[in-house]
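Deliverable D2.4 — example input (structure tokens):
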């Protein structure tokens, strides 16, 4: 009786549009999970699986355990406090927020060039177009998402759809290759010849840098904060972790299924694309192109959005025009790649080393809040088990940071 037009579906008088509605909590979870599964992650997983076979399953499982410990703590502390990582850090230690932001933003901007380039390479495999043109098209599509008024709604829908495409095609790869799961299980508990480097690389690529905070910052922007929302915050974190873990497992199993057959890969330098080609035949390269494009797009969107949430604390214009800031970041990455034709390797190495520092620094501040600054989290009584897991993860990532710093020297050789 409010004067609005209502229509019974059986009459067919007014067609109704079916829209994909994504709850904000799910949107935050998917943003975190899909940001972690970019082109670099897919390439690393394929390459290391070819090198180490079933033993690489151990690296996958270790990265998942670190991810669980880190994300559950990050989501809970930031969610209860209602403050983004850099703002909370500034309240704990003067200048800590600026240092954390500098590391996150620097690494994210460099890696975003690789993300949008990955999307361009995906379109090259999918449609056969020039990678630079594919990158330009992908960059424009990502920018278009942030031109509308309901940006969060658009981002959530795109991330869910592209995530489903990515997971669906990888599951198809597993179904076709039928990997020997028993060997993978043995490799998990008894890895042979697996060095520490693949584990560090996988952790840095799936929970390091901006990825650590993408889901939690999206959660805060959704207004789901405070101790009264702990159960919802935890549910969102667990959902994101579950999606990310499923993606890691099926991606490894898909590539391992190809490796276990002993098939000769058409291009050893492109283990991921060659695996799809071996599994599906000529159409496999096009399917891989779709997977790689989806991975590049989701990581570009997640990277640019999270970077903007860090920059907003230091400039009023950015706070007022977040959409435009994200657009500038996407455009910058796109233009740099189109102009250079490649992502400078030295920049990626440097950004990787910087990202290695982000995780232990940020996690240390977050755990300190749980230990000594409960005034910042509404005097919430923090679970001992969760705190213990977080400290264990911090010790591991701190050691990893020391190791990753040695890679900086390779830039100058």
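Example output (designed residues):
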């Amino acid at each position: 009786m409010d004067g609005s037009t209502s229509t019974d579906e059986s009459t067919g008088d007014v067609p109704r549009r079916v829209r994909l509605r994504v709850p904000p909590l799910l949107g935050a979870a998917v943003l975190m999970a899909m940001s972690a599964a970019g082109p670099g992650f897919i390439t690393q997983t394929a390459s290391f699986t070819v090198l180490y076979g079933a033993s690489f399953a151990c690296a996958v499982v270790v990265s998942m355990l670190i991810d669980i410990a880190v994300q559950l703590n990050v989501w809970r502390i930031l969610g209860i406090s209602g403050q983004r990582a850099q703002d909370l850090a500034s309240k704990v230690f003067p200048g800590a927020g600026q240092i954390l932001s500098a590391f996150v933003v620097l690494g994210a901007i460099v890696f975003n060039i690789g993300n949008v380039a990955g999307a361009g390479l995906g379109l090259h495999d999918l449609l056969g177009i020039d990678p630079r043109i594919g990158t330009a098209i992908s960059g424009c599509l990502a920018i278009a998402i942030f031109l509308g008024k309901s940006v969060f709604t658009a981002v959530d829908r795109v991330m869910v759809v592209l995530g489903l495409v990515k997971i669906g095609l990888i599951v198809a790869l597993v179904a076709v290759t039928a990997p020997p799961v028993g060997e993978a299980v043995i490799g998990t508990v008894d890895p042979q010849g697996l060095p520490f480097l693949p584990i560090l690389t996988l952790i840095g690529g799936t929970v390091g840098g901006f990825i650590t905070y993408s889901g939690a910052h999206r959660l805060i922007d959704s207004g789901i904060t405070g101790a009264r929302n702990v159960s919802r915050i935890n549910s969102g974190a667990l959902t994101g972790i579950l999606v990310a873990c499923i993606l890691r497992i099926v991606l490894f199993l898909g590539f391992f299924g190809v490796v276990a057959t002993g098939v000769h890969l058409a291009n050893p330098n492109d283990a991921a694309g060659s695996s799809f080609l071996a599994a599906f035949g000529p159409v496999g390269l096009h399917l891989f192109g779709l997977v790689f494009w989806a991975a590049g797009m989701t990581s570009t969107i997640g990277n640019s959005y999270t970077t903007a949430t860090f920059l907003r604390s230091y400039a009023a214009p950015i706070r007022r025009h977040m959409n435009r800031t994200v657009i500038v970041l996407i455009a910058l990455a796109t233009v740099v790649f189109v102009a250079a034709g490649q992502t400078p390797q030295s920049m990626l190495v440097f950004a990787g080393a910087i990202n290695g520092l982000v995780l232990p620094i940020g996690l240390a501040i977050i755990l300190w809040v749980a230990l000594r600054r409960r005034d910042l989290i509404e005097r919430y009584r923090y679970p001992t088990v969760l705190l213990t897991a977080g400290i264990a993860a911090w010790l591991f990532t701190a050691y990893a940071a020391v190791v990753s710093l040695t890679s900086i020297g390779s830039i100058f050789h």
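Residues 1-15 have pLDDT under 50 and may be disordered.
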